[in-house]
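Researcher: Checking consistency across runs. Here is Protein HGH1 homolog again:
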Amino acid sequence: MPTELEELVGFIANPNPQVRQLAVQNLVPFSLEQPQIFKTEELKPIKHLKLLVRDQPKIAEYVLTILVNLSGDREILENLATDDKFIDVVLLFITSPEEPNANLLAMLLANLAKWDSFKNIIEKKQPPPETLGSDELILNQLMDLFVKGADGSFNKHADYDYLAYVFADLAKHEEIRQHFITRQDYDSAVPLTKIRVFTEHKSDVRRKGVASTIKNVAFDVPSHPSFLAEDEINILPYVLLPIMGSEDYDEDDMLAMLPDLQLLPPDKQRDPDPKIVQTHVETLLLLTSSREGRDLMREIKVYPIIRETHLRVNDEGVQEACERLVQVLMRDEEDEAPGARGEAEDDDMKIVEV
């Protein structure tokens, strides 16, 4: 005989919406505690849950919460992330300005992006909402949702913060990195320049995801001149500002720093999350792959900023990253032996998932 829980799972597909709602509402905690109850009959309950994403908003809210929780299971994640029709439904709903569960849909997409084949989203298209001002590429629509929806002006129900995690995981893939640094025809903007401003946003999720996205895209070494150029991506002010506090610097050093970093207010605070600080320092380390990058960082006095970060952030990961960057910036270029940087770069050339 089926257990009470198994019977409850069976009610997911009940034709009565009140019964369905009661079932999924009560199953939410078990999606974390006992995910195996949803894996019976060759994942038949998952099939039903995917269909219920289209259900009444309250039912869909519970269903999406369950799917977000269950997508931590690799077998279920594969089932969700490889179901093209299901993904199309999720993408259609999240771009609706009236969608009440848009944040849950963003969280689900953040989990689905961990499956490698999800990178095929770069090929997906759908008509954009008129109010979004985007083009038909889904990836551009998600980027515009993230930017324009940050203050709730696109959809009063959502801030789309978790799309930052989607971008971070997608940026593990070369073709997505190329998209993020390529100027788009519909708005003449480079996607990465749209999100760089969020490195000092109030949302921890948004800051963390954006920091990881920037770092992952920075693994594309040929794009570094664009990263560094003031009239292109110009990433350095947006990476350096979050790791700076209200420290006083030598006047000559301060005047040589980037204009945005000079004369910071006395209440300026460093990002409180040491993992985010570490990610930004690791991005700087990646950008020292070229002589141009190293010389520029020396010229604009990145070393004093890293020195203060090392001194004031009591975190092993941050301090190790700072030490590695300092070793690169302080060495004598003329005495560098060929291949001397190989080992350090190999250690760092590992994408850090969010």
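Researcher: Does this match what you'd expect to see?
Model: One thing to look at in this run: The mean pLDDT is 92.
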